Amino acid sequence: MSQQNGRKINRREFLGQGLAGAIGVGVALGSSGAGSPAWAAEENAAKRLRKGGMVYRRLGRTELMVSELGLGGSPSPPPPVFSAALDRGVNFVDSSAVYGRGQGERNIGRMIKGRRDKVIVCTKFHPYRFQTDVKAQSIKAVEDALERLQTDYIDIICVHGASAPEQCLNDDVLAAFAQLKQEGKVRFTGLSNHSDPAHVLPPIIESGHYDVILLALSVFSGTRVTRADVKAGKVYDNWLADSGLQAVLDLAQERDVGIVAMKTMAGGARQKLAKYQVGETTLPQAKLKWALSREAVACALSEMLNFDILDENLAVVGTTLSANEQTMLRQHILDRSADVCRMCGTCLRACPAGVPILDILRYITYHDEHGKIRHARQSYRRHVSAHTFAACADCDACRRACPHGLDIPAKLRYARSVLA
Ligand code: SF4
Ligand code: SF4
Fold first, then answer.
1. 263 lines ligand 2 (CB under 6 A)
2. How confident is the model over 190-202, as pLDDT tens digits?
3. In the CATH hierarchy, which fold is given to the domain comprising 2-336?
4. The pTM is what?
C-alpha cells in the first residue's frame, strides 16, 4: 500500500497512474489547473518542472517525471550519499541483476526501505541468455530482482545490453513482460543498448513494446575527429546526425519513448581531467550538460560515489552549456578521440570472425577508467578466450573500418595483456 493525499491506494491503482504517478516528485505535469501560476503552465508545456533544487523531465509515455540526474548503479553509492541524493531531489535509480551478482539490487533494496515512493527503480537482466523456458525464466528473474530489491514492484524493467532487435522482440520475452505488468510487478518496460544503436533501436522503437531506452550517449557520440583533424585541431561535430544516432533520438521522441543517457562520462578517468576546467565548470559537469542539452534526453546517469561528486553533478541541474564549456569539450575530444569508442558497431559488421570487439573495449574502460579491475577481468574471462582471436593474426579489417581511427587490433592485444 502507498499513501496519497492521506488515502491509502492499492498497488494496482498506484501502478495504473500515469502523470499522477510521478512518484518522488510530489507533483505531476498535469498539475497546472485553475489557480496554478503561469510559469507552471509554461513548464508543463515544455515537459519540464523545477521543484526545489531539482529539475524533472517527462520520461516519454511513462509520464514519469524523472530528475535530470540519475544514480548509476554499478557500483551503487554508499548509503549516506544515496540518501543525500534523494533528499536533494534525485529520484531515478538504475541497477541490474548482474551488478555485483545481485548485490547492487540488494544494496538499493536496503537504501530505499521506507522511501520506496520517492524512487523510480529501473533494473535490468539478460533474457536473451536463457536457452530454454524463456518466458518462465524471465518471470523468475524479475521475481528474484523484486526479492533482492525488497519491493513488490519495479518501475522500469529492462533488457540489459540489447545488441539485436530480436533480443527484445522475442515472443516469450514479450509474454513474460505482459504477464508481469498484468500482475502489477512491473510498471514499464525498457532496454539498455551499448552497440550499433542506429541499426538495433529503430525496429524496437517502432514495435511499440518498449517505453524507455537507456542509451550510451556522450559528447563523443556527437563528434568525429580523424587523424588529420587532430593535426589541424578540428572537431567535426555533426556526427550525431551523420551516424544516425540523432535519427534514433528523433524517432524515440516521435514515438514518445523515454531516453535515459548513460556512459555520459566517456573519455577518461576523472582524476586526469582537472586540466580542462574552465572557470567554475569541471569537465564532467560540461559532459553532463552536453547530454542534458539533447532535447530527447530526460535523465543523465552518472556514478555519484561520494559527496564531492554528488555536489559537482547536482550543480549542473537546470543550467546550459556555455561557449567556453563547449571549447573545453572540443579540446578534450581532440586529445582523446582516437581512444574513445562511440559504440557505432561499424567494426562488428567488418569483422569476419564475430569477435565481440565492443564488449572487450568496454572491459578495457572498466579496467582503465573506472578502476573496476576485478569486474573487468571476470567479464573478460567469462566471454573471451584465446580462441576468440584466432582470425586476428593476418587481419586489420576492424581498424580500417572504424570511422574514428581507433587502432582496434592494438586495443585487443592490450586487453589480452591486462585482462586475460
Ligand atoms: S583483426 Fe580480429 S577483431 Fe579485427 S576484424 Fe580482424 S578478426 Fe575481427
Ligand atoms: S571501435 Fe570504432 S567502429 Fe567499432 S564501435 Fe567503436 S567507434 Fe565504432
1. no
2. 999 998 999 999 9
3. TIM Barrel (3.20.20)
4. 0.87
